[in-house]
Design goal:
The protein has eight helices and seven strands; from the N terminus they run βαβαβαβαβαβαααβ. It starts with 11 loop residues before the first strand and ends in a 6-residue tail after the last strand. About 45% of the residues lie in helices and about 15% in strands. The chain is globular and about 50 Å long. A seven-stranded parallel sheet has the order 3-2-1-4-5-6-7, sandwiched between helices. By secondary structure, it is α/β, with parallel strands linked by helices. The relative contact order is 0.15.
Length: about 260
């Protein structure tokens, strides 16, 4: 008898933004747990490199060039995953963006639309498509949304990003409440400051870095690989009675 089942053997996962940073770490973590993985990203080089690493683990993997802001490319991602890997059991909505750094009132309309379309619209409609795929095989599934602690407190410099992630947190709850009857669990993780290329503007700023490390219980920022374990937990049977939750992973800043 397995008391805590973290195995994803026989499962197929999609990870958006899966070629670098947190997304890459999660994709590799899911593969380590036994899943075959469809990695979605825009740049073919890092995409192929991630696929090769997963295949070296003995898992099946495909790389699908995807701009998540294009609905037809989301559909292509789902279609290719089903055609080449057979089914969809796990979706990790990780792709995100933040083209604006500065006071909220200085954001341009185009930047606002890019943030909301990438960080909120795309995860929702991809989740809808994956729900349909999960219903096809009838075994349920799991969705993990990569949010941010920025969605739980206001920011002076990345407020539009924070707004989009606050909305994602409610998206997680709303989908979980409705789709539980389908056997689909929806949860999220909310990373704090992680040392990725995406967050470089934050951790290279000494004042912001100090605010996120000196006040943290662990007194440091995190590496991307430290986010993977939580995603595997939420994707696996180990979290079978958990849904609608967003796990804060900020090293203890919020406590």
């Amino acid at each position: 008898m397995v008391v805590a089942d973290f195995s994803l053997q026989g499962k197929v996962a999609i990870v958006t933004g899966g070629s670098r940073g947190i997304g890459r770490s999660i994709a590799l973590g899911l593969a380590e747990a036994g899943a075959d993985v469809a990695v979605a990203a825009r740049k073919p080089g890092p995409l192929q490199e991630t696929v090769e690493v997963i295949e070296a683990m003995g898992r099946r993997a495909i790389g699908v060039e995807t701009n998540v802001r294009r609905m037809e490319q989301l559909q292509n991602l789902v279609d290719r995953t089903k055609a080449e890997l057979g089914r969809i059991d796990v979706l990790v909505n990780n792709a995100g963006t933040n083209p604006h750094f500065g006071p909220l009132h200085t954001i341009e309309e185009g930047q606002w639309d890019v943030v909301m379309n990438t960080n909120l619209k795309a995860p929702f409609f991809l989740s809808v498509l994956c729900r349909e795929a999960m219903l096809e095989h009838g075994d349920g599934g799991t969705i993990v949304n990569v949010s941010s602690v920025g969605g739980m407190r206001a920011s002076d410099v990345i407020a539009s990003y924070s707004i989009s992630k606050a909305a994602m947190n409610m998206l997680t709850q709303a989908c979980a409440k409705i789709w539980g009857q389908d056997g689909i669990r929806v949860n999220g993780i909310a990373p704090g400051l992680i040392k990725t290329e995406f967050s470089r503007a934050l951790w290279e700023n000494e004042e912001i870095l100090a605010a996120n490390t000196q006040g943290a219980a662990l007194h440091r920022m995190a590496e991307p690989d430290e986010m993977a374990g939580a995603a595997v937990y939420l994707a696996s049977p180990a979290s079978s009675f958990t849904t609608g939750q967003t796990l804060i992973m900020d090293g203890g800043v919020a406590i």
